[in-house]
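hey can u check if this looks right to u? its 471 residues, i copy pasted from the old doc so theres a chance i mangled smth
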Amino acid sequence: MKTICLVLLVIAASMTKDSFADLPRYDLMIHNVTTIDPIAGQRENQSVFIEDNKIIAVISSTEDSASAVTGNLKAVNIIDGSGHFLIPGLWDMHVHITYEPRLIDQMPALFLDYGITSVRDTGALLEKIAPEVDRWRELGREAPDIFFSGPLLDGRLVVYDGEGRPEIGVANNTASNAEAQIKKLKSAGVDFIKIYELVNPEVFQAMVETAAREQLPIAAHVPLSMTADTAGPLVDSMEHLRNIEIACADNADELHALRTSALNQPDSRSGYEVRSHLHSSQRPKALETANPRSDRCRRIIQTLTDTIQVPTLRLNTIARYSPTLRSDWLIHLERLPKSLAQDWLESADYWATRPSALGNLMSDWSLELVAEMQEQNVPIGAGTDTPIAQAIPGYSLHTELERLVDAGLTEQQALFAATIRPAEFFKLSGSMGQIRVGMEADFVLLRKNPLVDIRHSRSIEAVISNGIRVR
């Protein structure tokens, strides 16, 4: 409060009739708004002052001195926030910008339209993602901040090898090969690395050690050659809850031995076929006993309290929550290229009419696991796997927030998962994700309160990117 009063006194002192020309010049003021901060919570009647993409003051709009200030700032761009709610700009922690060529051009605008002001691209060949990163950064405030990993770092076999699926992975046959690969990525400017499912333990360890030397955070799937409690604590984020069910199963050791044999003797199977075979044969068996509240699973979860989990519940629960069940999905689908929208509609309709017992089991288990993780203080981040499985860029992040609340997070905790937690992954929580002095000025102005109902995160009135209103 002393700091706020000092700011007010300094500003108000400059506001004589003859000194208007000497007033501090603000790029933007959002006046008389209710701020929703992921840490501080809800504060009514606030005015937020922005200059050079930074918050320079947040003051109470009801204070006499604040009224004097706002009454004299005639030259400032002002947004009247009366009756509205201001949240920090949202992140999508798991996207693939180049995965669907028909969407690449639209990606920046779509994300911003839905209030996504930062994204983490978790897998694309360097020669494809690098030009997009340059384009996004040249767009400035007309594109979200983008952080990228380059390709999926896979093992001797590669799952996403371009044969019948996008090519977004690269092979790492040996530890020395992996080390060279990561150094190359570092020199290319990646922000983190992404470890995939077919690496062996030796290569995995080399990747972890090299990334540490190169000061690169690590996102990863749990490699099939390892277990969640051994691989998870060594990385900074884990994606999709992948392979945790196998570690939680009563017969985990037996399943691991079978995996090791299949990985060591793939025969003529491709990387995609090896992974698909192991998932389809082991996941149903594992889910029979992988109770998130069992002693065994709780022990597994306790090893992950320093590793951000990005569960992509929108994807994991799609068997229960088909996008076709959403009343507005078809409307938003119309924004996509016609051929893509038609393909997605046909695919969504196909799967919605073919319920899967395993899919429903995986949906329920994923929600239960996230609930137990939240209870045990495992950090949760919000990501969607856009554009995989009919995920409209930006739109799908709001669905993810709903699923996180379904899993037991409060509305404020869900917002934390899409603001503070991603910034923590990059050690940027001191400059992004809150509505307080010194933070970057990315915001979403809402018509309804998301702390009352997380679905209100969709009630977007305006989007501020890099301190400028862009929507």
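Residues 2-87+451-469 form a domain with the Urease, subunit C; domain 1 fold (CATH 2.30.40.10).
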